């Protein structure tokens, strides 16, 4: 198999770019003296995760217990499930720990802490729990100076569980696009999480792990004093949202969707392609950013960016490719039926999830099938 | 298995509502005297398609050749692949026809018609081809009065292929929301497609099939003179986009995502749930409609609509549930951790695609697993 013989639409990974991206973040965090724990939700693909670990990553982050099960079966023991634990999932978590998985849970409330401790005691299991800290009002977590932080820590310890540390995710970093703003939100993520850890320790509670991260803050961080590990996911592929934020070049984006031109509406300057939102995802993450790429940036089959051509609209299995400036009346000659193009996605996590497998393209154009999974 | 024991997030089908929706469109089209060919891209699920055929549907519409392969393996022969044919996929289409599948192809250009005819002659296969007609400028197709229509028809017939008919899809029907406007676009879809068929016949070309359809126009059509069959897909499930268009009640929506409350930000009036965009899809189809439901309408576990509560934001595996009016400061008491909710989706095709299976809930709350497939 090679690039030229793949059926379309297909999710394609440029393996050289992927290794470059993986090496870049690892070198940055090595230099800052912290461990790196990649988030596998972006690719859900053992081939990619093997490359991340070979480059120096220690353990993984998951967004579902299915990811934990799949990667534990693949041989990875050190896993943090970075979504607030809900009582009904404790049986699934227990089964993983009983099989030898060093699974860490997350809680940000007293009801969750009590439920974990009660279930753990009932089943003779000392769950390790990390407390989620809210560093930017983005989503979940306890404010670093809130008394609730200590109450939750104490409920876990008094309940017989292992308080493993604190965890934060500066999801609001996606809203910035200058080096200064990114460095500032990275420092806010670091300092608030470290402060939460200090509060726990001052209250006589253990807090060995201080875990933070998002792709923008991980790459923008200049100082990680007090942090023990960083988490990030999308950096391995990058995407147009990350490009608009300013943490990668278009030529760093390792994931694209290979597609074929199936028709035209010449007077409108449209080429119709066989990748619609089913292949790209419905993610319109660049819609409110500096540059709106529609459903994606058009490139040649070999990955060279075609300046002003984007997928401007999408139905389920149809995409409309057009020029962002004035309509290209010669588009049928430029991209005749059968022309193969590659589309860089807005959001690599969302686009990857639409595909049962990646096609990993080597420097010589050869294609390997890398399966990925989905569901819960 | 029953509703109460399903893991979350999960895609749930209310079987009673589904049968009601399937029966409604079938009765409407039976009364108008046309055949009905459901589009299986919405569910990609044999259980749903079996119910559609049991209700009277004749043949199916597919958006990918994988759908054709899967449903042909399930025993369905009469299939139209309603996406413009691209030369590289002709081998796959040929294999299906050689196995006995009555697969119909679609073309809207001379290059595609010539490619199909040439490939067919080379391999001794008389492909049946339908010509796509553009009835509303929405996407693909040839304008009904364009001379190109006759040229393509003649290229197919002279090339030794079977010209099976014309096919149109009034995708712009999604932009309307009054009965009058929907009836008008339905009539436009009908009259323009019938006119295209008349032009072909006047030129001495065959045109046995006149196929039109979208869920809004199929339900709004009052007269289908000259039409031989209608196609529609999302009607079996319905969704919030269809509700805003005005073709279903909220209580008709058969698909929802079951989710569990995992935390709160009380001062913001947020409940955090374990269904994010991975479970709902990134589809924001109601964003520009009369009522924006965010990522979905919140219901109780048993499917009763909870008025002003929507999923207002979503990350990959986190959803934020909030009240569209003023923040609900009592949300943690209203929806404690562990509360199970159901979220009606914006777009049933996109939400279903995120899930490996549906859980079909009967009147008694029992749950059956109905697998669905994805990919190409």
From TrEMBL, chains A, B:
Record carries keyword 4Fe-4S: no
Gene (name only): dthadh
The protein's name in its UniProt record: Alanine racemase
Record EC number: 4.3.1.27
Any GO BP annotation: D-serine catabolic process
GO molecular function: D-serine ammonia-lyase activity
Keywords: Lyase
InterPro entries associated with the record: Ala_racemase_N, D-amino_acid_metab_enzyme, D-ser_dehydrat-like_dom, D-ser_dehydrat-like_sf, PLP-binding_barrel
Phylogenetic classification of the source organism: Bacteria, Pseudomonadati, Pseudomonadota, Betaproteobacteria, Burkholderiales
Name of the top EC class for this enzyme: lyase
Domain D-serine dehydratase-like per the UniProt entry, residue ranges: 254-362
Protein family per UniProt: Belongs to the DSD1 family.
Keyword Zinc-finger set for record: no
């Amino acid at each position: 198999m090679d690039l030229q013989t793949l059926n379309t639409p297909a999710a394609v990974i440029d393996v050289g770019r992927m290794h470059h991206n993986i090496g870049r973040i690892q070198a940055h965090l090595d230099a800052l003296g912290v461990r790196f724990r990649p988030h596998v939700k972006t690719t859900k693909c053992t081939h990619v995760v093997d490359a991340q670990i070979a480059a120096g990553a220690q353990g993984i982050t998951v967004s579902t217990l299915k990811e934990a099960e799949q990667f534990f079966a693949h041989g990875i023991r050190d896993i943090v499930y970075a979504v607030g634990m809900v009582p009904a999932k404790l049986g699934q978590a227990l089964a993983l720990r009983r099989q030898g998985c060093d699974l860490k849970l997350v809680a940000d409330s007293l009801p969750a802490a009590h439920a974990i401790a009660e279930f753990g005691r009932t089943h003779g299991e000392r769950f390790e729990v990390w407390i989620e800290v809210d560093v930017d009002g983005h989503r979940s977590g306890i404010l670093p100076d809130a008394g609730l932080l200590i109450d939750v820590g104490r409920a876990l310890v008094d309940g017989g569980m292992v308080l493993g540390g604190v965890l934060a995710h500066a999801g609001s970093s996606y809203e910035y696009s200058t080096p200064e703003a990114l460095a500032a939100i990275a420092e806010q993520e670091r300092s608030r999480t470290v402060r939460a850890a200090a509060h726990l320790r001052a209250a006589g509670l253990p807090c060995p792990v201080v875990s933070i991260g998002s792709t923008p803050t991980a790459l923008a961080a200049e100082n990680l004093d007090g942090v023990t590990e960083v988490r990030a996911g999308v950096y391995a592929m990058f995407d147009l949202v990350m490009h608009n934020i300013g943490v990668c070049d278009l030529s760093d984006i390792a994931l694209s969707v290979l597609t074929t031109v199936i028709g035209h509406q010449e007077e409108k300057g449209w080429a119709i392609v066989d990748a619609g939102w089913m292949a790209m995802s419905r993610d319109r993450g660049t819609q409110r950013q500096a540059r709106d790429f529609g459903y994606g940036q058009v490139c040649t089959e070999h990955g060279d960016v075609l300046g002003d051509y984007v997928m401007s609209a999408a139905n389920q299995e149809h995409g409309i490719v057009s020029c962002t400036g004035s309509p290209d009346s010669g588009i049928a000659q430029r991209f005749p039926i059968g022309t193969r193009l590659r589309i860089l996605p807005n959001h690599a996590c969302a686009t990857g999830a639409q595909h049962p497998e990646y096609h990993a393209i080597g420097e010589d154009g050869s294609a390997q099938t890398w399966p990925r999974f989905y569901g819960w």
